[in-house]
């Protein structure tokens, strides 16, 4: 029951935490949320090491590999997108300065 | 304070970082910091997990080897893909990473259900069944969505006779066998049936959806993966998975709604699929209306002698990866004293906000990118609106009721003094209706691929007025 409570409360937090996002940020935000569910890596690691059969180890290996791909790829791609926004903001400022 | 308490606090801190990170990503100035905060939380959670495993002392050598190998393979694969993917292919990459997360979440429950000899209590069993079903659906669905955007899978809506029936049957099968697991009648066979039916449903769900709806679908699948991860957290009793998963589930859901709203589509009509397959009402266009085709030279002269030009980039520009060409043409015009701006529709490109990213990659200055509400009043003062591969987002029919684009917010391109449209053919846009702007007497159609067309325009400007 505790777990269910945490689940529901977290849903509400997720509902509140993003509200008036400009369309510009929709794609990076989706990518960031995508990276966050890579937390499943923690779960995959915990189960992978409890395996005691070949099938268990194979499942664990695949789960860990997929989750690690989700985490690393998710954050790297998000940062690549955001880096452009930063560069763009700087370019905009420099343009202002030049005037 | 015992180490266990410390580890719990670290997990709690990680969860807090995710919430804070998402919140900071609401605004452009703090977005970068938001991503870093969330990444720091992730690193802390992973480190705490390693400490937890070391401390338990029960992990075998094989266990460590499997863990190490899995993390290395996955991390390197993800890193390589994320570093090398072209900015235009970002949506596919996000979809692939989402598939990976969904698959991992499903496998956590599969592993748990296979390992436990006694039947689970109903609560965790329900979470495990839901995890397998949702995880498998998002795994298969995200792969198909990525394939559609990459062009590996037909991007048009694929609707076969009886598709809805097959969908319903697969969903019923997945949920029915999932219910068997919950009631303690599971087993490897029932589990396999559940997983295969859910995978099939994932494929069948995304196949009838057209390529232009993919952003909404990917966002929806992203939210579903979050929910699957939360379920995985309930299965193994790990709080940070529950919090992070639910967080993504809810925020992803909201984001999906925002995206669908910007495209004037209801979520239900996206998922129902088959949009633009021929059941659209007849177009309101006058059959006698004539299309005026212009050459590169005509268009170049029009642009070079204008005082004010507004570029309107669309899906076609993103698909042709012509962001650098459009900037070169803009620079050339600016060097001649032409005032150039870019009008960005909220859903231009392949994902909402994607066009901003693409143009930023081509070093288009921030202050030249104008959001729809800011730029619309300016069209009436523009000499030329240069439309590059945009269609439905500029269709004046959206102002009238009774057609598929009715009510969709559009760029007021038709208010410009003259319009040049770079487009490959008179083909219809995603909404499947003709665009009356193309037959407007002040519109010149320049039939070309966006990349090639822009390069030719720039070359013509140089030669004619250089």
Concise structural overview:
Chain A is mainly alpha-helical and 99 residues long. Chain A has one domain (24-98).
Overview of this protein structure:
The complex is a heterodimer of chains A (99) and B (466). Chain A is mostly helical and 99 residues long. In chain A, 82% of the residues lie in helices and 0% in strands. The mean pLDDT of chain A is 84. Chain B folds into 2 domains: 3-272, no CATH class; 296-465, TPP-binding domain (Rossmann fold, 3-Layer(aba) Sandwich). In chain B, strands 3-2-1-4-5-6 form a 6-stranded parallel sheet. The longest helix of chain B is centred in the N-terminal third of the chain and has 29 residues, at 28-56. The radius of gyration of chain B is 26 Å and the shape is elongated. Residues 275-284 of chain B have low confidence and may be disordered. Classes of the chains: A mainly alpha (99), B alpha/beta (466).
Low-confidence stretches of chain B: 275-284
Backbone shape of chain A:
flat
Radius of gyration of chain A: 20 Å
User: What is the count of DSSP helices of chain A, taking H or I runs of 4+ residues?
Assistant: 4
- Write down the Rg of chain B: 26 Å
How many individual β-strands of chain B? 6
